[in-house]
Write a sequence for this structure.
């Protein structure tokens, strides 16, 4: 503690010298939650899909005659749930086959309230055997199934499009094992990310991923969508940290790849296929994951920059001077700050700037970390890369500062109808897309904001309008996708494709690659019952 | 430098206090090389394989009537290379279709000289287009192909079994791009790992992997075999660090997944399939990989322990106290030390102990790193976890100490015929296997040694005998595999399965998983021309 105190004094001196001020909010970080939001739904139009012929429409076009490629194709010829089916589910799941419409309401709609299905049954298995029994039955009956975790996704991947059966992992929430020497956690898919974090923190470890939706999202959904989040810069992607998966395939077979080994080169690494497959290849029922030690010291810095170029130079300086203790480097622009001020009444902790940076350090020695941070801040301010800033070392203040980054999504929902884009780009091009989009849209949009994970080259571009606006959408797309493709970027860095982005896959993947994905889908789910209308495009090129 | 000096003094004081001495060798680390070794070959016997019927035998059983499951099945009914085929290759590759027997000699045999093929043509394409032309032709002609990188593998995966055409990536050795902001390197598959390391070090970065064979092995082969090595503890596996691959499929189609983005969730992550597939699913022609910053400070510590339990406690202490700067934690036993002394004349840098530990730290601040190391060593010695040790901070001394770990493979080759096992286990069980094996074999073996990557739970168990000894092999196998399977370990942690271990896959993978691997092979290489007789078992359960 003496080290922290000493460091705080030093930093304060430096900051005062540079006319920085320390103004912390004591508000707690809000968590995203799928419960309690409301809004309007759009209905879903026609098209064709690769796994079957067109069928009876349940939804019609709501906004004009020309459907967007994001909207759903016609319902495929899956069976409809009968009384006999319900009897089987009720017998198998004993009180956990839900048909109550109030309960179904929240499971049928996504967190953004942008996609709504009309499923009439929600199944809540408690273990792998039950998942296997359900899927074997559904496959034999040609009943479509939408696996659902915390339902916090942003691309309409976790809700039914029509009457698909919802298979929730919420009751599969047991921790199966934790090895305190290796840091390897094994748990059921339905464990909520924040609960796992709390469990591990008591044992001096942390989860290798963290994201705004942690209070609701489940580890199975995180893996199925290859969630990125705030710690990817430091601990890497789930393709590296997930060591094993148990997956139930479409026909009910259980694929046991639930290894708890750091290294295993015996044949093809099949579990990788399911990481990021959005529930279209199998239902993840258990996960083993390598967890890092809990850092003994965490610091958060909130800085202001005059230009995006200075922000990038600050990133470079930071990587060199903070080195192995850098655990996050995030940014938001002044438009994000305006929305946080306006809609959530969160005041700017520093003076107004065009760009803001959130830097987190996590290390094993508070004194060393403080010294590294001090040296970095001194250099960043002396060389005029940053113009204002504030530092937090106490947990409540760290949470308050993090909320300036984590609550942007929430602030946006209060600004109007959201058009959300989650783009990977070479880091030096990231903000040019925001600038170009603003110029391109002119007065058509209410707000055009950019924020995201600089360290991962990941921009969250969001555009709002007072209400849903097909003309605005026509101006945004395909402009945003073409711009991204020209820079060899990805049109979905971490959100996945789900329902909304499935037909834009060709902007980031070759037709050879997409065709091969189709082949893999056909092997694992020949009837296409698992999460139909998601991830893969309606038609292969 | 003042920091280093100060630290050295401090450490020396501590070490003297604990009766540790500093005795460094100035010898340079030797590199493994495929050139210049000699030994005897065993010929390969009969069996059946999943992709075709049995055919004319080129090899016969050398050692008794009962073939081991490691030995090769009968030749499959691939076409034989004709004069027309050679004419095509010569026209396509212009002087790089080699039929000279001297040149072919070293490409037909593996580094251990344990497997020898009889290929009559070696193809050396320079670019992806040429690889594509060659494979399209071979696929249409039903000619089998063995892709070959640096040919440093230990399981017979990189050499032909019969007359397969050898497709070498050695001339595809260009660096295509390096982004100095993101640290993302893009290069052709044939770049030698050490050359990439040297290129990056000049630019203040390093490769995320390092292994003893770095002077010969190629990045394409590293990826194809999912090489682990000495830095995995810190930077994770290639499943996390490889960002993109370009792969030529069996029929000549080029699969472009050569993304240079840290995040890309547009569809299934196909490149993962090829990482660790040992050239059986496609030929990797280019790689993009995320490279860490070059550490500003590296220290190496060589310690001695009385028991394996103390070694494990030292590991736990080390993870807590060195935290984010720990970059390797390796071990060797006293039998390894004896072989290094005897066969390579490498003296023990400390006093004799039952177990030795090699710890590497890599960080951004020499003073901080030195302090952390000092604190750790003080604690380890005060609590009597370690009994002797030596520290190196200068590059030449670091290399000399590393050679005690890196040259064990070389020392083993001088001890007789090698039976090599590369096992993943829960870390607390690792050495029990060595002890049990010694007891089990009694006087049958010449040496039974254990070393490896404690931090990754990876044991290299090696057994030697004066000459190849079927009775000894019968005593080792399936004992070693059954022992490993009982602990839910992996029978190949990082070496892969290749020819030698293919039939042991079921000790670590379920029949469901292996069947799915077979399905994926059938999609990508329906004629089975790519690296036949490797990775997958002869018969599916």
């Amino acid at each position: 503690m003496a080290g922290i105190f000493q460091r705080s004094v030093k930093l304060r001196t430096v900051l005062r010298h540079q006319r920085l001020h320390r103004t912390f909010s004591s508000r707690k970080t809000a968590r995203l939650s799928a419960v309690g939001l409301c809004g309007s739904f759009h209905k879903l139009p026609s098209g064709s899909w690769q796994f079957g012929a067109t069928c009876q429409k349940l939804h019609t076009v709501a906004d004009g005659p020309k459907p967007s490629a994001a909207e759903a194709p016609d319902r495929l010829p899956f069976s409809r749930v009968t009384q006999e089916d319900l009897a089987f589910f009720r017998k198998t799941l004993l009180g956990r086959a839900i048909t109550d419409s109030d309960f179904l309401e929240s499971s049928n709609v996504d967190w953004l309230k942008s996609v709504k299905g009309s499923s009439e049954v929600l199944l809540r298995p408690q273990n792998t055997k039950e998942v296997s029994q359900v899927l074997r039955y559904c496959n034999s009956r040609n009943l479509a199934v939408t696996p659902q975790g915390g339902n916090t996704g942003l691309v309409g991947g976790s809700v039914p499009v029509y009457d698909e059966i919802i298979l929730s992992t919420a009751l599969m929430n047991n921790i199966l094992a934790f090895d305190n020497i290796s840091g390897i956690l094994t748990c059921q898919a339905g464990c909520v990310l924040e609960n796992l974090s709390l469990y591990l923190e008591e044992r001096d470890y942390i989860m290798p991923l963290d994201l705004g939706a942690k209070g609701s999202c489940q580890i199975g959904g995180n893996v199925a969508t290859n969630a990125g989040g705030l710690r990817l810069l430091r601990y890497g992607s789930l393709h590296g940290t997930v060591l094993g998966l148990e997956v139930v395939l479409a026909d009910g077979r259980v694929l046991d790849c639930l290894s708890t080994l750091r290294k295993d080169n015996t044949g093809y690494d099949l579990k990788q296929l399911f990481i990021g497959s959005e529930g279209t290849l199998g239902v993840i029922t258990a996960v083993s994951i390598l967890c890092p030690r809990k850092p003994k010291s965490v610091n958060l810095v909130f800085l202001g920059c005059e230009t995006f170029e200075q922000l990038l130079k600050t990133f470079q300086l930071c990587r060199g001077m903070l080195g192995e203790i850098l655990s996050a480097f995030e940014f938001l622009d002044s438009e994000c700050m305006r929305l946080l001020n306006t809609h959530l009444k969160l005041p700017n902790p520093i003076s107004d700037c065009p760009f803001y940076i959130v830097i987190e350090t996590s290390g094993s020695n508070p004194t060393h970390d403080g010294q590294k941070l001090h040296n970095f801040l001194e250099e960043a301010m002396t060389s005029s890369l940053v113009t204002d800033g504030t530092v937090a070392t106490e947990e409540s203040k760290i949470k308050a500062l993090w909320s300036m980054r984590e609550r942007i999504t929430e602030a946006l929902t209060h600004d109007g109808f959201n058009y959300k884009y989650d783009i990977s780009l070479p880091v030096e091009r990231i903000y040019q897309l925001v600038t170009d989009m603003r110029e391109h849209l002119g007065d058509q949009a209410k707000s055009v904001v950019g924020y995201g994970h600089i360290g991962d080259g990941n921009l969250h571009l969001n555009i709002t309008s007072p209400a849903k606006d097909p003309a605005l959408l026509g101006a945004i797309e395909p402009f945003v996708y073409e711009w991204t493709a020209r820079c060899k970027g990805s049109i979905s860095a971490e959100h996945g494709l789900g329902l909304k982005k499935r037909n834009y896959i060709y902007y980031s993947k070759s037709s050879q690659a997409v065709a091969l994905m189709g082949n893999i889908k056909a092997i694992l789910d020949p009837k296409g019952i698992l999460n139909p209308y998601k991830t893969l495009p309606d038609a292969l090129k």
About this structure: The mean pLDDT of chain A is 88. Residues 366-382 of chain A form the longest helix (17 residues). The two ends of chain A are 62 Å apart (CA to CA).
